[in-house]
Amino acid sequence: MNKKYLLFVLLLFISGHLLSQDTINFTIPECPNIGIKSNLSTKTPLKLYPNPVQNILFIEFDDGFNNYQIDIYDVYGKKFFSKIKTGTDKKYLGINVEKLSKGIYILSIKGRNTSYQKKFIVF
User: Fold this and answer.
1) Taking the domains of the chain in order of start, what are their residue ranges?
2) Cβ neighbour number for residue 71 with a 10 Å cutoff
3) Neighbours of 109 (CB within 10 A)
4) Which of 51, 69, 84, 105 is most buried by a 10 A CB count?
């Protein structure tokens, strides 16, 4: 649906005297096709808990872990933890994070054809 507007314009001299005034009628057409369409799903098969965490961060993966690498980074990109697992098919994994300083971290899990990242907080 197009929207109609009325604009009232005043033009003034520098000395403050009115030079002219006018009204302008204009229409702005609706553009429903403007934007970015994304087919990316925000749902991942990866769950972290508890979050925030103090001691052990549990990772649950819907399909099970099989040939993957786990890395933990701080928000500045510094790596604090890295582990490679092969030949396992566990659904749950626990990582001791009690030696990490309080802050926000990013857990990255990379498999053969997949990669997932999740934020978590250590307190």
Assistant:
1) 46-122
2) 16
3) 20
4) 105
CA 116-63-46 angle, 5° bins: 35
Other beta carbons within 10 Å of 51: 14
46-122, which class in CATH? mainly beta
What are the angstrom distances between the C-alpha of 60 and each of 21, 57, 88, 118? 68, 10, 14, 12
Angstrom distance (rounded) from CA 123 to CA 57: 12
First and final C-alpha spacing in the chain: 51
Bridge partners for 20 per DSSP = 11
Instruction: Walk along the chain (123 residues) and give the pLDDT tens digit of each residue.
Output: 667 777 766 666 556 566 666 777 767 666 655 555 545 455 678 899 999 999 999 998 877 667 889 999 999 999 999 998 877 667 888 999 999 999 999 999 988 888 889 999 999
Long-range CB contact pairs, 78-82, < 8 A, 24+: 80/105
Q: Max alpha carbon distance in the chain (Å)?
A: 85
Verdict on whether the full-model pTM lies above 0.85: no
